[in-house]
Amino acid sequence: MGGRNPYLREAEARPPTRKYKIIFLPDGVEVEVDPERLPYGEHGLPGSILDVALVHGVEINHACGGVGACSTCHVRVKEGLETCNPASEEEEDMLDNAPGLSLCSRLACQTVPDGGKDIVVEVPQWNRNLAREED
């Protein structure tokens, strides 16, 4: 699943220009993001936290396929939020439906770090997809 949602204005995001790291909590999985290899897949905006997480085996639930039409990929950007694109009004509306909302909450599918510094992302327990279908 993936693609674009024709009913939402696509968020504006600057892609990263240098390599950076994302640390995913609570497991502490650290991945390096190489801007030359983006986008990795079709989950969320190119270079989004969701796109990076999934290609590196970090499970984040995303019921809408990463098109910004739900709040299931809610994450908390604990460090480096200032290097991410600002949340659109549509994203903020979707976040209103997410449990455990905080000031650093974002939708992983809509959040694109610019690579200005390494970031730390917490995947809340309820957003980790522990059941997976076989390919």
What does this structure look like?
The structure is a single chain. The protein is of the alpha+beta class and 135 residues long. The protein has one domain: Ubiquitin-like (UB roll) (Roll). The chain is built from 2 helices and 5 strands, in the order ββαβαββ. A 5-stranded mixed beta sheet has the order 2-1-5-3-4. A hairpin with a 3-residue loop joins β1 and β2. The protein is globular. The C terminus is likely disordered.
Keywords for this entry:
Ubiquitin-like (UB roll); 135 residues; globular; 5-stranded mixed beta sheet; alpha+beta; disordered C terminus
Brief synopsis:
The protein has two helices and five strands. It is an alpha+beta fold and 135 residues long.
Low-confidence stretches: 130-135
Strand content: 15-25%
CATH H-level homologous superfamily name? Beta-grasp domain
Q: What is the domain tally?
A: 1
What would you say the CATH architecture is? Roll
Q: Could you please say which CATH topology applies here?
A: Ubiquitin-like (UB roll)
Share in helix: 10-25%
Radius of gyration: 13 Å
How many beta-strand runs? 5
How would you spell out the order of helices and strands? EEHEHEE
Reading side by side through the largest sheet, how are the strands ordered? 2-1-5-3-4
Terminal-residue CA separation: 13 Å
Top CATH class: Alpha Beta
Which structural class matches the secondary elements?
alpha+beta
- Tally of DSSP helical segments: 2
The largest pleated sheet is described as: 5 strands, mixed
Question: Mean pLDDT, rounded to whole units?
Answer: 87
As an assembly, this protein is single chain
Shape: globular
